[in-house]
Amino acid sequence: MKSIKDIERTMDFHGEALDNIFETYRLMRENCPVGRSEKYGGFWFLSKSEDIFKVEQDADTYSVKPTMLVPPVADFPMIPIDTDLPELMDYRRILLPLFTPQALAKMEKPVRDIAQDLAREFADSGTTDATAGFARALPTIFFSRLAGFPEKDWPKFDAWVDDILYERTLDPERAKKAQDAVMAYFDDLIEKYRGRTIDEADTGTIMDYLLEAKIKGEPLSRQELLSYCYLMFLGGLDTTAWAIRASLWHLAQDLDAQRKLRENPDLIPMAAEEILRTLSPVQAMGRTCKKDTVIRGQEIKAGDRVVLLFGAGNRDPDIYDEPEKIKIDREDNRHLAFGAGHHRCLGSNLGRRELVIGLEEFLKVVPEFTLGDPSEKWYGVGRLTLNFKK
Ligand code: HEM
Fold first, then answer.
1. How far is the CA of 126 from the centre of ligand 1 (A)?
2. pLDDT digit string (tens) for 222-265?
3. Which of 338, 354, 356, 379 maximizes ligand 1 atoms within 8 Å of its Cβ, making it the mutation to test the pocket?
4. Which residues have C-beta within 8 Å of that of residue 120, sequence separation ≥ 6?
5. pTM over the 0.90 mark
6. Ligand 1 pocket check for 243: Cβ under 6 Å
7. Domains in the chain, CATH or no CATH each
8. Burial status of residue 322 (CB atoms within 10 A of its CB: 0-12, 13-18, 19 or more)
9. Which ranges does the record mark as transmembrane (predicted)?
């Protein structure tokens, strides 16, 4: 059996490390809440909710440079996620009109229509993989429309996302190839979009907003445009798919909860928050310490990397009653799944609505389902086999 010191030293939050991650988090919270891992060039990690909230909000001490992602998912800084204040706000402002309550209200019907069609198709077709048939398809179709990515290109996206996000720890060369392919794809798309103006009647696509944007009177450079598109592509597709898949994975095993949500769909938004808390699509993000500091007595030096384990903070017993339990009607559920500082997820309300509407429509259309293959994991966006009576 591994000692606590060994668990600390080899702390990881990708791939198979996720098989046992909640137990690892518990041990770390209890024994070394400010731990030191040797993975990915070495980093400190924080597992207590309070510490993570503090670092998220302390831009004087922590930077997101060179990148928030550990290990990196690009060999260039991504916009806006790898940008510090004050430039960060210039970049965030560009897309804010897309996420106002009015803009989001307009998105409800298209998201619901797509979810309904996919759920019907899934229930009728006799296929059993709810990831490809539903959890991934819903955000891919909706987000790609919002972003302005042509429909004929959607089939390519899943493989690119998989290679960049999930292969990067196993096969970095493959991840790099996918990164280059995505950048070449956006390079082409940006050219096609240039010169278009945002239709008055429409809200415009993400591509339109990025191309029209000006910062201090200047349009975004080609590299800025590419970098923003790349981040939106990764952020908009994978996270929401993970959240929908994780919700179905859980409900397939907790039939009481599944029945309760069918009988009382008003509980679905609360259930969605609880899944985001307990099975968070983004388990961790990194920062770099800008000046020497101390957390819980541990000295952290300028230049050290610090990883915020959102997944661990989200199960901190100091914050949540029975933290390991997935309670679909949990109240006061303030979690870290979208971050908590000035980098808080820009698409959080859209991601939430896609998750809630997706679950509502799935439960309306697909009869009671159970897990078809118990070896399928809670994490990632791999296959999810569901059994149900037709
Ligand atoms: C359930 C779905 C989602 C989850 C769990 C999620 C989670 C996150 C997290 C944890 C961060 C980093 C926050 C931090 O370190 O403080 C983030 C940032 C971001 N997310 Fe999301 N996200 C989701 C959906 C989306 C969607 C649908 C979009 C786009 C439409 C999006 C766009 C972004 C952007 C642009 C950032 C960077 C914000 C910044 O650096 O200022 N996300 N997200």
1. 34
2. 999 999 999 999 998 999 999 999 999 999 999 999 999 999 99
3. 338
4. 365
5. yes
6. yes
7. 4-388 (1.10.630.10)
8. exposed
9. none
